[in-house]
Each structure stands twice: as C-alpha cells, then as structure tokens.
Design goal:
heterodimer, A: mainly beta, about 50% strand, B: about 110 residues, 6-stranded mixed beta sheet, about 55% strand, globular
C-alpha cells in the first residue's frame, strides 16, 4: 500500500515551458487535492477534485490546470511556467470532501522555474 | 472566511524540555481542527485532530492538543521532546462546505541536544 505517490520528485524548467505533475493514490479515496508550499506561507490549495469527474478551483488556481483522469489519478499541468511557480507541490487525498476527513499527503515535487 | 494563525514561526528547545506550539483560528461556526507534521524533505502527516467531544486530544509520538472554544485556540504540547521531533508543524482548520483545509504558516521546531 503505497498511499499517495507523486512524480517527478524534482524538476527544473525554463520560463515558458510546460509540464505535468502526476499524482496517484491507492486508498480508494474519492477526493484529491493539489497544494503548493512556499517558505513562510504554509500550504495553499490550487485545485481539488471532490470526486471522479469533478474539479474546482482553490485559493491560487491561476496558471494551472488539472485533470482527474480516473478515481486514482489527479494531474496538475503548468502550461507556461513562470518563476513565480517555483515551489514545492503536494498532492493529497481523502475519503471524501468532508469536514472531518484526514487528508493524506504525497512526498512532494520540488519545482524550480528559471 | 476562516483563517489560522500560528503565533511562532520558529521554536528552539532543548531535548527533554516541554514545548507548546500555539495556534489560533477564526471562525463563528463549529470547526474541525488538525495538526500536521512535516519532517525534512517529506510530505505532511497527521499528528492529531479535534472533531468533537473531549477538548484534550492525544496524537501520535506523545503529542497532545487542547481545544479552547472561548479563546479560539488549539495549542499543541509535548511534555518532553526528542531530537527526532525536529520538524515543521502546521495547524489547519476545515475550510467550509467543501471540506478544504486552511493551513497556518507553520512553526519550525528545532530540538537541540
């Protein structure tokens, strides 16, 4: 049982390049999330998916797109990377979008945009 | 909108000393509160959560937190810390009808020998 996995672990991009961050969970969770973590800012929600087939914007969605490919997988795409998107990206999942539910986090992707 | 304030960005402490990491939240409705820990170069994992009932919540690794509704606080405590407790700790509150978490900015706990 791997939990939440993310690929890649590290990535360096040049301004304007595109890339997709992959996330998968094997816990049969309905809900999945993408966060970014910046020093002194905590975690901020980019997008979430309450269930397969639905996605919604979070606090900081500009410059990103997401795809809930199936129940297991939730990808985050940067169409034209900018230096302001240099950050650590975390994917998380929970059984449902419920106020009480624990979110389970992946190990993160460290992205640098030059 | 709900918010979370972690009052200390860094807390240095000696091994075997007690520690308290402070968290205050703003909300006028019932809340669910969480503490997550992030060890260096890892993702976050749940330490403990308050949903209802007893205001003293026990978590993993000897940590506990007390929910205080009148002071809108949810401080994390450990009576005796170890070097291995060195990590960043995040307080979070449920973010509304969609169940999204609102995180504080984190407190870096540094345990020195």
């Amino acid at each position: 049982n791997a939990g939440v996995t993310q690929t890649p672990k590290f990535q360096v991009l040049k301004t304007g390049q595109s890339m997709t961050l992959q996330c998968a969970q094997d816990m049969n969770h309905n809900s999945m999330y993408w966060y970014r973590q910046d020093p002194g800012m905590g975690l901020r929600l980019i997008y979430y998916s309450a269930s397969e087939g639905t996605t919604d914007k979070g606090e900081v969605p500009n410059g990103y797109n997401v795809s809930r490919l199936n129940k297991r997988e939730f990808s985050l795409r940067l169409e034209s990377a900018a230096p302001s998107q240099t950050s650590v990206y975390f994917c998380a999942s929970s059984p449902r979008v419920g106020l009480q539910d624990t979110q389970y986090f992946g190990p993160g992707t460290r992205l640098t945009v030059l | 909108a709900q918010s979370v304030t972690q009052l200390d960005s860094q807390v240095p402490v000696f091994e075997e000393a007690p520690v308290e990491l402070r968290c205050n939240y703003s909300s006028s409705v019932s809340v669910y509160l969480f503490w997550y820990v992030q060890y260096p170069n890892q993702g976050l994992q749940l330490l403990l959560k308050y949903l209802s009932g007893s205001t003293l919540v026990k978590g993993i690794n000897g940590f506990e937190a007390e929910f205080n509704k009148s002071q809108t606080s949810f401080h994390l405590r450990k009576p005796s810390v170890h070097i291995s407790d060195t990590a960043e700790y995040f307080c979070a509150v449920n973010g509304g009808s969609q169940g999204n978490l609102i995180f504080g900015k984190g407190t870096k706990l540094s345990v020195k020998p």
